[in-house]
Amino acid sequence: MRSVAIVSALLLAGCASTTPGVATAPTAPVGPVETPKPPARLQYLYGSPEAAVAVRATNARIADYGAWRIKQRPKDSVVLAPGATMDAPAFEPCGDKPFAAVFDADETLIWNLGPMRYFAEKGTPFDVKVWDQWEKTGAGKALAMPGSVEMVTRLRAAGIAVIANTNRSAANAKGSEDTLRAAGLGEFKHGETLFLMGDDAGGSSKDDRRATIASKYCVILMAGDQLGDFSQQFNARDLPAARRMALATSAAANALWDKGWFLFPNPVYGPWEKLGWDDVFPAASNWTPE
Amino acid sequence: MRSVAIVSALLLAGCASTTPGVATAPTAPVGPVETPKPPARLQYLYGSPEAAVAVRATNARIADYGAWRIKQRPKDSVVLAPGATMDAPAFEPCGDKPFAAVFDADETLIWNLGPMRYFAEKGTPFDVKVWDQWEKTGAGKALAMPGSVEMVTRLRAAGIAVIANTNRSAANAKGSEDTLRAAGLGEFKHGETLFLMGDDAGGSSKDDRRATIASKYCVILMAGDQLGDFSQQFNARDLPAARRMALATSAAANALWDKGWFLFPNPVYGPWEKLGWDDVFPAASNWTPE
């Protein structure tokens, strides 16, 4: 358990309210401090029509792309071959393998509203023990994201296997199968259409699991909310922020975004939480009022 | 100037750190409280490759759509006719008017890094006086968003007028023209390709300005980071959150998203900041660990 001081620091790193191009200042929260509003990034992702529109449109693009892509009988999966990087991309071959679409689960197929509200109301950081319980008991409390039920239904109707590759624990396989089913997303079966952390020696890297899937399927598309859902190269230890940005927006990566690789918005959590002031705001853009 | 108590409440509404599907807890901020990291929503939008990828892909979709759409000589603009709503959509006719694409400016064409860092470092909410100075003096300090220079260049090369309709003030027209030009986005001229708050009696509603633009142009696409960039109906006073969500994700709206209406992610500011706990987290998804 972190100290109150660190929790306070996290909160202080929080949320000045900012509203450009609007003539009036935003409404300050009313009511006691004991019942503040949810953190802004949670308000946006889980509550706003703005995020719902973005998520639903991404799901529509995925379903449209899948239906279109299989007509072409692609030569390669969109899974990078072992050792291939964005600097020298190469892909697993399709052969005559059946088609599959590979998805992360959390904040890609489902929204984890239960523990997100719990953590936010308590003002506590992420807690692995609470999360472990969530994996075991969350069925019925996680919601399918906007448009994701329609999306997986369309893919399956087109004959495309829908596979999840998530860093939920293999020890909690049944809980995650139940959670996805209860959200209306259909059947995922561990080892066949559900791949979990602990399935191999790769730890939180999904690369080995992707290779396993691509050995059996022609993976026509992948979707996730984190860059690690596409390649572990984006999570390389000590990768400088500028290099990570360059890799993710390279010509080779840009040729894949929306064309086999589909990224969902997630301003709630991610490795960008490490970025400092000068990573986020280049010195050349610094400005102060008179 | 708001009291320290209210600023504290805003900060407390902030940011519990949450990282599902990861085996280790996130790194707590180190160093003195005086130099915390930027607020998470700013880290994500302005600093992360994840957001850069999403923005760049949106810009690519806009440019692709524009080039494709004008070949069809559309019958109607994507600007709703006066009085039309998502329940009964009707659009301004194109006739043989020249083609245009209409954009919001802030967090749609440019990132306002200067005042965003200033507000965040100070821990202060949005300040209209500071923003007014920014409109006047920000040229060279606002950055074009990822892919937006390429996008406007492609649209103009296809013969499509690029028009901005923003709630920056008409009194600061020169500052905004200079800001867009300095960001590499080319020429915007007040009254011709730049429409500002104060141009008519509509205040912060962009509907009348959209009607003015659609009287002269066949508007093949609109793009923005707020629902008010498409229709003021989404900003109707006292519109319940559930109704706003239903309008934005209605069949009529879904037929437009990515097909004439393009929404950029913006978890930094928006009307969703008013949402309360039960708006964001439906009671049926409440969960607590044992």
* Integer tally of domains of chain A: 1
Number of helical regions of chain A:
11
**Beta-strand level of the residues of chain A, as a percent range?**
5-15%
Rg of Cα set of chain A: 20 Å
CATH homologous superfamily placement of chain A:
HAD superfamily/HAD-like
Find the CATH topology of chain A: Rossmann fold
Instruction: Specify the helix fraction band of chain A.
Output: 25-40%
Structural features, described:
The structure is a homodimer of 290-residue chains. In chain A, strand 6 (161-169), helix 7 and strand 7 form a beta-alpha-beta unit. By secondary structure, the first copy, chain A, is of the alpha/beta class. The first copy, chain A, is globular, with a radius of gyration of 20 Å. In chain A, the strands form three sheets. A five-stranded parallel beta sheet of chain A has the order 7-6-3-8-9, sandwiched between helices. The first copy, chain A, has helices at residues 4-12, 40-47, 49-69, 113-122, 128-137, 148-157, 173-182, 207-216, 241-248, 251-254, 277-280, and strands at 76-80, 91-93, 99-103, 110-111, 143-144, 161-169, 194-197, 218-224, 261-263. Chain A has one domain (44-262): HAD superfamily/HAD-like (Rossmann fold, 3-Layer(aba) Sandwich). In chain A, helix 3 (49-69) runs parallel beside helix 6 (148-157) and helix 5 (128-137) packs across helix 7. The model of chain A is unreliable at 1-19 and 21-33 (pLDDT under 50). Chain A contains eleven helices and nine strands. Chain A starts with a helix and ends in a 10-residue tail after the last helix. At the A-B interface, helix 1, helix 2, helix 3, helix 4 and helix 5 of A face helix 1, helix 2, helix 3, helix 4 and helix 5 of B.
